[in-house]
TrEMBL record:
It comes from the Bacteria. The keyword Hydrolase applies. One of its GO terms (molecular function) is hydrolase activity. It is an enzyme of class 3 (hydrolase). Keywords: Hydrolase. This is Dienelactone hydrolase family protein.
């Protein structure tokens, strides 16, 4: 009788071990499936595109794990020019499933080495808006021609000067589904008018010294006047260039009212992510 009970005990232990192993294998299979479903393989490359008068040097990124054609998003750089920060944002958009083109609004990949030079470059673009629009539209056409892009789904994002460019392009009637901007200027060469078709997400710092209360008030009033589809978010205690991790060092080096804000940077990117998910119904 004792031997019989002993055999039952061994059988029970073996059965439990078998079930545990099966459960562990099942959990491993589920994890493997999740990893496979969320696989990200970002491919980025430098490209050139041009207008009749200028050759631009950009950077395009996509997720090779995505199937079919994805929406394309234009990324417009800060006033420093087409740099690593803009490329990183293109890569981050690619991770989300978009094809992102980081553009060159100055031509020849030109970058400013000092704020005075950055002001000169950015002012030249804004004062010669027809030329700027030619460059922007050349970037859009380049993005639409990419084999991974759905040419009927194009949007834009921009930072600082790039935000002003993206908003001005949307106001001028550029065929964009949506525009999301970060620490953007609001005094634009083309202000909101009936030509605006894109949905807008504008995220600025409440302590941004580059924007006056009057500019914000006037910009919102013009959007309201045309019943624009927009959201304006001002982060309390946040300064200009809050998404750029180099903002603090640049502020110290050149005595500029800039500051990186990790919390605002994270929240603003999440809001942008949700914004584009709604636009493209992912």
């Amino acid at each position: 009788m004792k031997n019989y009970k002993w055999l039952l005990l061994v059988f029970a232990i073996a059965l439990t071990a078998c079930k545990s192993e099966k459960k562990n294998n099942t959990e491993k299979d589920e994890i493997d499936v999740i990893i496979e479903e969320n696989e990200v393989k970002v491919i980025g490359e430098e490209i050139s595109y041009e207008t009749d008068s200028t050759i631009m040097k950009g950077y395009i990124a996509h997720n090779e794990a995505m199937e079919g054609k994805s929406p394309g998003i234009i990324v417009v750089h800060e006033w420093w020019g087409h740099d690593e920060f803009a490329r990183e944002k293109a890569d981050e958009l690619a991770e989300l499933g978009y094809v992102a083109l980081s553009v060159d609004m100055y031509g020849q990949g030109k970058q400013a080495k000092h704020p005075d030079e950055a002001m000169e470059f950015s002012s030249n673009v804004m004062k010669n808006f027809d030329t700027a629009k030619q460059r922007f539209m050349a970037a859009i056409e380049t993005l639409k021609e990419n084999e991974n892009v759905n040419p009927n789904k194009i949007s834009a994002i921009g930072f600082c000067f790039g935000g002003s460019v993206a908003l001005a392009m949307a106001n001028s009637g550029s065929d964009l589904d949506a525009v999301a901007v970060f620490h953007s200027g609001l005094e634009l060469p083309v202000m909101p008018n009936e030509d605006l078709k894109a949905k807008l997400l504008i995220q600025n710092g409440a302590e941004d010294m580059m924007i006056t209360d009057e500019q914000e008030k006037e910009f919102k009033a013009q959007l309201e006047a045309i019943n624009a589809d927009y959201e304006y978010i001002a982060y309390e205690g946040v300064k200009h260039s809050f998404t750029n991790k180099d903002a603090d060092s640049l502020a110290k080096k050149y005595d500029l009212p800039l500051a990186y804000d990790k919390e605002a940077a994270t929240k603003s990117w999440e809001r942008m992510t949700n914004f584009f998910e709604e636009v493209y119904s992912y």
